[in-house]
Amino acid sequence: MAAPAARTPNHPQPVKSPAKSGARRWLRRLVLVTLAILMVIAAMVDFCLYSPRVLAIQFVLLLGLFGLARLLPWPAHAAKSLRPFLRDLLLALVPAFIAVVAYAHVTAIWASRGRSFSDLSKIPVTKVGLVFGTTDKVAGRENLYFRYRIDAATEVWNAGKVATLIVSGDNSTRYYNEPNTMMLALIQRGIPADRIVCDFAGLRTLDSVVRAKEIFGTDSILVISQRFQNERAIYLAKANGIEAYGFDAKDVETQAGLKTKVREVGARVKMWLDVNFLNTRPRHLGKRVDLPD
């Protein structure tokens, strides 16, 4: 009679704790999200600092590193976790980008809450109004952004809300002079010329806001533009120690208005990077200018 076959000992597989498995999944997601957000911010900072050619080289190198990591003969246990991790990290970059853009947008809204008004009666009296420049004509046609800002500045002046108006804009060439054009338009509305001060180096919103403090010596301003720019300006003012309020000019609802709103998405990201990562300063400063008493 044949001897019975030896039985293989039955070693039960260890049962993983659902709590531990869940904690590991959440930790993995947290690491993925954190890395993706950091990579997006680093790419945005590089975009602001370097040329498109440098960025293209960096992007190609990054893709090459990811590809190399997937092709290398990793040990089985390492490849099992690393390669899916790299794949998921790449997939996480898109939602991370959206999250950073959304956060930059919301920070401007949050900073300006209760400070930007469309009702003239709610605006506190402020010594200085800051009107942001734009061209008066686009392709030979009237620029409604320009007209509505001049309208708003005139309303503010007539209501006695400000004692001086700074018109700040681009004068980068002898043939293009936003501040002078705004000043002439305001004088035509009856505002005294000696109460209007031109800032010829307001190349960006940041430049106009910071120069209001460092060149014109005011720690309190009423910004006058469309609401989207006022929100951004108030955020920048707060970051630079300036007390700021806003009066919202009428917005533009045409196709040009839509294009401006799309550009505003990038402007808010740049605003956030300027304050928190780039420490951006105005392109031009110069000597102090005294405002009218």
Summarize the structure.
The chain has 293 residues and is an alpha/beta fold.
Characterize the structure shown.
With 293 residues, the protein is of the alpha/beta class. The chain has two domains: 20-111; 116-278, Rossmann fold, CATH 3.40.50. Helix content is 55%, strand content 12%. It has eight helices and eight strands. The protein has helices at residues 18-49, 52-71, 76-111, 144-158, 178-188, 205-214, 227-239, 255-278, and strands at 116-117, 128-132, 137-138, 141-142, 164-168, 196-199, 220-226, 243-249. Strand 7 (220-226), helix 7 and strand 8 (243-249) form a beta-alpha-beta unit. It starts with 17 loop residues before the first helix and ends in a 15-residue tail after the last helix. 29% of the residues are buried.
Tally of contiguous helical segments? 8
How far do the termini sit from each other? 120 Å
What profile does the largest beta sheet have? Answer: 6 strands, parallel
Overall pLDDT, averaged? 88
The helix-and-strand class reads: alpha/beta
The CATH superfamily of the largest domain is identified as HUPs
Main β-sheet, spatial strand arrangement: 1-8-7-2-5-6
Shape: elongated
CATH topology of the largest domain: Rossmann fold
